């Protein structure tokens, strides 16, 4: 399957150009009446969910709320959403940022330009607060010691802490590439002389192949993370296998490399069954988990996020830390994390595949 075909599939799955009516049907009217409760409940949903998968599957997740409005194909519904979003305080509005900034949504949200200005100001203030509390060093003092760790993919099927030594920290980023945040993450890493390991979602790589290639061109390691990021424990094994294979193929096509160049894999949410792990290992992939979680999906305030990352490093002292290059708070906090690693004389680690990828005779 060629990249052009994959792009066409992604567009067909994600977009469609609905016709919007200004007349409110009974279904639209019911949905709009419930919209206030839904929008106001998004923050509570984030606070009460302890697992990312549960938050993403919540009917009060911002993506779910906005997609329901999208499906109504009603100008009145979009106007009602504008009213509700405009009334939110900034720390609740930011939960809807990605939905507000999506071109397919923004063109129906007359309030989008105003909301985007509010969001820009909100994040600038948050970054300033973190910078005041933890000033960054000068550019000359910003570089961090970085080492490559060779992974023998022919014999190392699963990593949790990466078998790293004391003081070695592997930065890993999931769920990209993101069209604007991933390039900023790359710039921050380059300024510090740090290489990292990125696990890309197939459909995101297909949607943003130029950004996917920027990651590889910058010298980072790229692995796959399924095609659409489902909880593989909740789907039949053949579906899970298809997600693994199509995710890897999509990332490889976006990068312009053979799939053999992508032997690293990460399960969405770290969730797997015995059969799924056997399938991945049987294909010759090394699976990566983590022993430190930044919780950047949940901790939205950059200062709190920074402190949580330091606490994780203090507790574990070594290993693999999980970030996501799709969140604004992660972009803001990353230079401060790198500066702290340098101040503590810690090494950052990038995993590099070595050895021949050797699928088992019967991968199933």
Characterization of this structure:
The chain is an alpha/beta fold and 364 residues long. It folds into 2 domains: 3-129, no CATH class; 144-354, Alpha-Beta Barrel (TIM Barrel), CATH 3.20.20. The protein is built from 17 helices and 10 strands. It has helices at 3-14, 26-33, 35-48, 52-56, 62-72, 75-87, 90-93, 97-101, 103-106, 112-133, 181-192, 202-207, 209-217, 237-255, 274-282, 302-316, 328-343; strands spanning 146-152, 158-159, 168-174, 197-200, 221-224, 264-265, 286-288, 292-293, 319-324, 347-354. Strands 1, 3, 4, 5, 8, 9 and 10 form a 7-stranded parallel beta sheet that branches. It has a 3-stranded parallel beta sheet with strand order 2-7-6, covered by helices on one side. The longest helix is centred in the middle third of the chain and has 22 residues, at 112-133. The protein starts with a helix and ends in a 10-residue tail after the last strand.
SS-derived structural category: alpha/beta
Unreliable spans: 9-24, 360-364
Give the CATH architecture of the largest domain: Alpha-Beta Barrel
Q: Quick one: how many beta strands? A: 10
Rg over C-alpha atoms, rounded to the nearest angstrom: 21 Å
CATH topology of the largest domain: TIM Barrel
Assess the beta-strand content as a share of residues.
5-15%
SSE arrangement, N to C? HHHHHHHHHHEEEHEHHEHEHEEHEHE
């Amino acid at each position: 399957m060629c990249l052009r075909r994959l792009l066409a599939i992604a567009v067909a799955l994600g977009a469609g150009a609905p016709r919007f009516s200004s007349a409110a049907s009974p279904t639209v009217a019911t949905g709009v009446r419930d919209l206030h409760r839904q929008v106001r409940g998004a923050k509570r949903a984030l606070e009460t969910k302890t697992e990312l998968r549960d938050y993403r599957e919540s009917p009060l997740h911002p993506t779910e709320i906005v997609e329901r409005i999208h499906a109504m194909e009603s100008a009145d519904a979009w106007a009602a959403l504008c009213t509700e979003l405009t009334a939110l305080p900034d720390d609740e509005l930011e939960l809807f940022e990605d939905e507000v900034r999506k071109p397919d949504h923004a063109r129906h949200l007359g309030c989008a330009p105003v909301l985007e200005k509010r969001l820009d100001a909100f994040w600038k203030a948050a970054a300033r607060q973190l910078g005041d509390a933890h000033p960054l060093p000068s550019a000359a003092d910003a570089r961090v010691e970085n080492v490559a760790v060779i992974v023998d993919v022919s014999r190392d099927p699963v990593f949790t802490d990466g078998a790293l030594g004391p003081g070695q920290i592997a930065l890993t980023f999931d769920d990209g590439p993101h069209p604007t945040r991933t390039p900023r993450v790359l710039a921050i890493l380059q300024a510090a002389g740090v290489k990292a390991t990125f696990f890309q979602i197939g459909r995101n790589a297909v949607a943003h192949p130029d950004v996917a290639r920027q990651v590889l061109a910058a010298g980072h390691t790229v692995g796959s993370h399924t095609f659409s990021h489902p909880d593989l424990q909740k789907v039949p094994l053949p579906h899970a296998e298809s997600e693994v294979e199509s995710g890897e193929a999509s990332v490889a096509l976006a990068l312009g490399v053979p799939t053999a160049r992508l032997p690293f894999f990460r399960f969405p949410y770290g969730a797997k069954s015995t059969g799924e792990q056997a399938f991945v290992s049987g294909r010759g992939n090394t699976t990566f988990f983590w022993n430190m979680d930044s919780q950047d999906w949940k901790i939205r305030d950059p200062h709190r996020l920074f402190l949580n990352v330091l606490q994780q490093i203090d507790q574990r002292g070594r290993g693999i830390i999980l970030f996501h290059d799709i969140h604004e708070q992660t972009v803001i906090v990353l230079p401060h994390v790198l500066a702290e690693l340098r101040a503590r004389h810690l090494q950052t680690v990038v995993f590099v595949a070595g050895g021949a990828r050797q699928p088992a005779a019967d991968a199933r």
